[in-house]
Design goal:
4-stranded mixed beta sheet
């Protein structure tokens, strides 16, 4: 393929695959509703962590804020630009290292990162860290005098987007700092540190200026190390990863790429240390499962596989670009491997393309509760959603703010010792009374079995201050919800003494 044709091909593929997740067609997912909500909060002058709880690092909130400034398609435009930038830079590396088909691996990257079974559309944190990983690799291979500065900057962007995803970068950092380089080691370290600090100081400065550093530290760091990590046997990790691979279509690409990488260590290859680093990066791409053990709980967290969208093509690149083995250098062999890597993933994209939906949130919008609330012309603090993170969509759809910083509550289900003194639950009740919140959409049946004390306390508060709303139709909430097989009952409560 002519070098200009390969650029046009990757540009076209990237745009077409991105259009599968443009705003009218994007996949609904509650995490993305949370990110959007916090982005709106920033736009209104509030601060993440201090004014709303979340344990993700802050970069995803700032990205959503910026996307909203650009309009309804803003986040999609930013997302598409980042994927396109990474794809074209990766293509350029393929041309520089004289791959016979430099478009194959950028094409594979797009197939992996736009796999609807994994990606949950656009806007997930690990999508962006996968993009940063691919950009990191392209910078690592380059000759720019600012290379180590950029590597430090990309590491900081990764860390403040999703902390555990720094782990796949570590083998490449060892390669960058331990390898032969005309730049002295101390200078490389200083440049990398300057790049990392450039992002870090901006973020710390923002939270210091808003008097929110303590909230930032407790929610985005202490919480993750104290609660979000979970012990699990290596065999159980292996089973979860294997089952997830089977379900998402990633298995063939993973097996072929790892087999190629291991083979390259025993065959002739000019950069075996880089191949080894890429192999480690693939294994470390599962860090989310290693740390949390949540890959297959409830609704499977298949988006934990998103880092592989970058690490698999990177590994294959290190084999193809630096091999001195006649068979692997042959262009027919590389085309064959490219086809094998891509075939099942291409089918998944085709399957998604033929089943596009403009109604991803219908399972919420069609509930009697939502339709009732839609008629109430709600303002800030007049609605509170308890233990139904999907319904955070209502905050965004109605353009309102929640009366409490605790906008989701599944920790009462996940962790038996969560909020044992009911301090958080009582703070929620105080906020509701302070704002005289009119409506509460309650799914606390969800926590009854795991945390009966919290359930009883919450129910007592509701019955003292609220009364159930009699809806015109009997609600069957969650009937179409693509998550839990059993959907606890939802009750819409209204503040006592409010007419109507």
């Amino acid at each position: 393929m002519n070098k200009y044709y390969s650029t046009i091909f990757i540009l076209t593929i990237c745009l077409l695959f991105s259009f599968l997740y443009c705003p009218p067609l994007d996949v609904f997912y509650d995490d993305k509703e949370i990110f959007q909500y916090i982005g709106r909060l920033i736009d209104k002058g509030y601060t993440p962590y201090r004014d709303v709880f979340d344990h993700k690092p802050p970069l995803i909130f700032f990205l959503n804020f910026l996307g909203q400034l650009l309009g309804p398609w803003g986040l999609w435009l930013l997302d598409t630009f980042l994927v396109l930038l990474a794809s074209l830079l990766f293509l350029d590396q393929g041309k520089k290292f004289r791959l016979p088909y430099p478009w194959i691996l950028p094409f594979l990257f797009n197939l992996l990162i736009r796999n609807f079974l994994v990606s949950e559309g656009i806007g997930m944190t690990r999508e962006y860290t996968a993009i940063f990983l691919l950009l990191f690799f392209c910078v690592l291979l380059g000759k720019s005098r600012y290379r180590h500065l950029l590597l430090g900057l990309l590491t900081a962007l990764t860390f403040f987007m999703q902390q555990d995803q720094v782990l796949p970068l570590l083998p490449f950092w060892v390669y960058a700092l331990a390898g032969d380089d005309p730049v002295p080691l101390i200078k490389r370290i200083l440049h990398a540190g300057a790049g990392f600090l450039a992002v870090t100081l901006l973020i710390i400065g923002y939270f210091a200026a808003t008097h929110s550093l303590t909230y930032f530290w407790e929610d985005a760091f202490i919480f993750n190390f104290s609660w979000y990590t979970e012990k699990k046997s290596w065999l159980d990790h292996f089973k979860s990863i294997k089952d997830g691979m089977d379900a998402t279509g990633y298995k063939m690409a993973f097996i072929i790429s790892v087999a190629l990488g291991i083979s390259a260590l025993f065959l002739q290859n000019k950069k075996k240390r880089l191949v080894f680093a890429a192999l480690l990066a693939v294994l470390l791409s599962f860090s989310a499962e290693y740390l949390s053990g949540k890959l297959l709980i409830g609704q499977p967290f298949y988006y934990y596989f998103l880092p592989l969208a970058a690490s698999i093509p990177i590994l294959v690149f290190t084999v193809f670009a630096f091999t001195e083995d006649g068979f692997l250098r042959d262009k027919k062999s590389q085309l064959l491997y490219g086809a094998l890597l891509s075939c099942s993933l291409a089918y998944t994209v085709l399957q998604h393309t033929t089943h596009l939906s403009r109604h991803n949130a219908d399972w919420i919008k069609e509930t009697p509760e939502f339709q009732y609330l839609q008629q109430q012309h709600l303002k800030d603090y007049q609605l509170y959603i308890f233990d139904h993170s999907g319904f955070i969509y209502a905050y965004n759809r109605f353009g309102i703010l929640a009366p409490s910083r605790w906008i989701y509550h599944h920790f009462w289900r996940w962790y038996p010792h969560w909020d044992t003194d009911h301090h958080i639950l009582q703070s929620i009740e105080q906020d509701l009374q302070k704002h005289q919140t009119t409506y509460i959409l309650d799914r606390s049946d969800n926590i009854r079995a795991e945390n009966p004390a919290a359930y009883n306390l919450w129910q007592s508060f509701l019955q003292d201050h609220y009364q159930p709303v009699q809806l015109p139709l009997e609600a069957q909430p969650g009937a179409n919800e693509p998550s839990a097989p059993v959907n606890p009952k939802i009750i819409l409560w209204k503040l006592k003494g409010i007419p109507g």
